[in-house]
Amino acid sequence: MTFKRWIKKIGLSEGSARNYSGAIFGSISNWAREAGLIDSDSSLIEISDPTEFEKLSERIQRLSIFQERNAKGNNMYSNALDKYSEYLREASNELAQDLENIITDISYSETDKIALVKYRIGQGAFRDNLISYWKGCAVTGYKKHSMLIASHIKPWRESNNQERLDKYNGLLLTPNLDKAFDTGFISFDGKGKILISEFFESPKILGIEDDMKIRFEKSHQPYLEYHRDVVFFNL
């Protein structure tokens, strides 16, 4: 689940989702880079470990620019950090919960459970099918398979079992593209051209360019439509 959708799930408004996401991936990331708290070519979008983020958050909140802007913004920036930290803690438990659901579901045979567990963690036949289909990164063509991530287009939790196993519901991506795609900061239009969220500040720092595209088949279209409509984070 993307941060935007999580914000709305907990009952906050679309405006809050925009403001908090814009703060995390825009202003706060910039302040952290300028202060040397993260690499100059990095962003808070790359941090998925809640403990790591909480430690970084404490350091960010000691920055004078953060304190000044937070005071003027009625604590909007500190609220954004708190919400993102909460989101990461919940997201870190999501995989474990999905695996537990598979293991405890009596409708699956043991063989099916093993296969589904591998699918859920991006291994097994799903990854093999994507490697066979895409040959390399679906966007850049990068060929070193050990560096590529098997990513569902329609998220696992929102897919039925057939969709979870369908090779057309998957992209093979480099880590930077996978993270941006998974969090809804990029998507692809009906012709395969990349869509970059207006809330994704300085995507070129992560090597994401507005002339990128993918080639896909008709069977990919429903999944990409879902991603654009539900996951992609834009107005």
Overview features:
235 residues, mainly alpha, 2 domains, two-stranded antiparallel sheet, 10 helices, 6% strand, globular
Topology of this protein?
Blueprint: H1 3-9, H2 14-34, H3 50-60, H4 64-72, H5 76-104, H6 110-120, H7 124-134, E1 149-152, H8 161-165, E2 170-173, H9 175-182, E3 186-188, E4 194-196, H10 221-231
Antiparallel strand pairs: 1-2, 3-4
Write a brief caption for the model.
By secondary structure, the protein is mostly helical. It has helices at residues 3-9, 14-34, 50-60, 64-72, 76-104, 110-120, 124-134, 161-165, 175-182, 221-231; strands at 149-152, 170-173, 186-188, 194-196. It has 10 helices and 4 strands; from the N terminus they run H-H-H-H-H-H-H-E-H-E-H-E-E-H.
What does this structure look like?
The chain is built from 10 helices and 4 strands, in the order H-H-H-H-H-H-H-E-H-E-H-E-E-H. The protein is mainly α and 235 residues long. The chain has 2 domains: 3-89, no CATH class; 122-231, no CATH class. A two-stranded antiparallel ribbon has the order 1-2. Strand 3 (186-188) and strand 4 form a beta hairpin. The two termini are 18 Å apart.
**How many domains would you count in the coordinates?**
2
Helix content: 40-55%
- Summing up helix and strand content along with how strands pair, one would put the structural category as mainly alpha
Cross-sheet strand order for the largest sheet = 1-2
The string of secondary-structure elements, in order, is HHHHHHHEHEHEEH
End-to-end gap: 18 Å
Give me the Rg, rounded.
18 Å
Shape: globular
- In this structure, how is the largest beta sheet organized? 2 strands, antiparallel
Count of DSSP strands: 4
Mean pLDDT: 88
Low-pLDDT windows of residues: none
Strand residue content = 5-15%
Number of distinct helices: 10
InterPro entries: HNH_nuc
Pfam family, one: HNH_2
GO molecular function: endonuclease activity
Keywords: Endonuclease, Hydrolase, Nuclease
